[in-house]
Amino acid sequence: MVLTIMIAVLFCAKTKLLFDTDRAFSYLMTSILAAILANMISVYLMALWDNQLMSERLTLWSGRIYLLCMVCVAFFALNYAKVAIVGREKKNRTAVMANVSFLLLFFFAGFFLRIQIGKKDEILYFYGGYVRLAYGMLMLYLFLCILLVLKHRKHIERRYVISVITFTLMILITVVLVLLFSRVEFLSFAMALALLFMFLEMENPDDYVDSDSGALNEHAFRKWGQRLFQNKTGMPLLIISIPEADYIKKKLGVSDFNNLLAEIAQQTQKLHIGKVFRLDSGEFVCVVKAVEKEEALFSAVLAIIHGLSERYAGISPESVRYGMIPSLENYADMESFLQDFRFYLKHLCTLSGDVLHILDEYVLDEKNEEDFVVLSLKQAILNDEIMVYYQPIYATAKQRFTTAEALIRIKDLNGKFMSPELFIPIAERRGYILTLGHAVFENVCRFIKEQSLEERGFSYIEINLSTVQCMQKGLASELVSIMKEYSISPGFINLEITETAAIKSEKILMKNMQRLLQLGVSFSLDDYGSGYSNLDYVVRMPFYLVKLDKLLVWDSFKKEKTRVLLETSVEMLKHMQIKIVAEGVETMEQAVYLENIGVDYLQGYYFSKPVCEEEFIKIVDNNTRIKLQS
Length: 630
Ligand code: C2E
Ligand code: CA
Ligand code: CA
Known about the structure:
Layout: H1 2-14, H2 20-50, H3 56-86, H4 93-112, E1 116-120, E2 123-127, H5 129-151, H6 158-181, H7 185-202, H8 218-231, E3 237-241, H9 245-252, H10 254-270, E4 276-278, E5 283-287, H11 294-309, E6 321-325, H12 334-350, E7 356-358, H13 361-382, E8 387-395, E9 400-411, E10 417-418, H14 420-430, H15 433-450, E11 460-464, H16 467-470, H17 475-485, E12 493-497, H18 499-504, H19 506-519, E13 522-528, H20 535-540, E14 545-548, H21 550-555, H22 560-575, E15 579-582, H23 588-596, E16 601-602, H24 613-621
This protein binds ligand C2E and calcium ion (CA) (2 copies).
């Protein structure tokens, strides 16, 4: 009894009756509790009866009720197995009636079949036709349970198979022992143990709870979704997403960040709109029960975020994205929905905050465009058509080109060049970026070797690394083996990474960097002045050079304040002995100014656009002095 109550308390405290299996489990648990209680009462009454303190009639009735409870346990075990296998079907009234009548029939059989109290070795027990019938039914239900699970074992999770079978076997074996030795109280304990086993094995609520936020986790979302599609009820989904979650986590520290997540989860749950799931680091999904008051719901969510913005740095109603998927009716199953859903989530990050975005077919048009890009990427990869263009970079000290940036080029299915700004993010989220990164690196190494660039007065080639590449543990080894294959000296390679990469994967990135730095590879911080510009990265990470973003360069010619920012940045970086490249140099005026304030390298259309290999070789061959002041 104590054991079962403990399980019940744990179960109630943590589980949110999310799935039909949870509900079925709670029925099973309740019936076991009832059986144990009835067992205790009947044993007590038997003892009283033995001392002539209780009427036989009442004692026998307590026995009947106990037997009924036991049959119910087996019945609910079967019910649980059914639910675990098929999920909940539409409530079938006749089946419910049939089951209930069957149990009632068994109960009324108690009026006609014999039940008696026996005594053996000082142990009291019930026997007679009714008892045999009860055990018969118990065994029947349990056998059905095993048959059912074995029959469907291929379609259900292994742990369900294991725990249902173990549960039923434990009880079956105990029933046999009870029949042999007539020790009834033994069965209650076996039931409690079997229940405990089942609870630990498959109803462990931790499996579905996200430990950081206390909301339900992604696993729960997927499972919940599968059930939803089985039941064919399309519900709207509300998405709350914090695109800069990783950055906020760094700022706040892990524990405050988790508090923030927990508050979002709790407060949204308090709106009583439905279940709340946390998917990625800063993404929440709420399953909305009804959407009549979409606007009211949205303002409630905005109010929550507004409240939190007063206590947590980095979060504000504008920095959070809100989306609503009105219906899931168009999807056949969870898998097909999840494909679009992932796109919706990424897409939402690119939209503005502070507004509720409806994510429907119109948004999917964009997905078709994305699919076109993906097809083009696939074809380029398959046909080995990934190209690299080179943009020469002018060194102010030497007054000629000494380095170049390698830039990827890919044509779409219609033969037109696609912008890397378009396809790189798509390749990142659709899982092609590692292939592209590898191809670019190999391409560049091959080119350096074929054209003996190292002997032609160039210092190094700059190659862009995607954030996703930087998060790869094996990145350093991969690059080292390619350099070896083409016998490229690591000193001829400069890798460009952005701040986002440094924020997202600092630890792994640092390890990769250290290994490559030891060999002589150098690193640049790309797009300085475009993102968060967290200066501590410049200080903390071993960058050889910093590349000023083109927007920073352009803006400094329009806004006085940006000019001050640019000039102070240059001064600061010079003090740190970090080399500086300015990107986007399009005019002579810009070039002269940037040289005068001490920028070491200039890159931009003023000198040259990125060009193909042959064009670049021509530039390398004609690499004469270019004087900026005419
Ligand atoms: P980025 O690393 O900032 O590269 C510089 C971009 O600025 C290039 O665009 C270049 O063509 C452009 N650019 C250079 N000078 C000028 C100028 O004077 N005016 C203007 N308007 N633009 C200029 P591109 O080649 O389209 O590449 C765009 C971005 O795509 C790159 O920005 C980089 O983030 C990414 N990317 C390019 N190649 C690769 C690659 O091989 N791997 C990865 N991971 N990303 C790449
Ligand atoms: Ca770059
Ligand atoms: Ca850049």
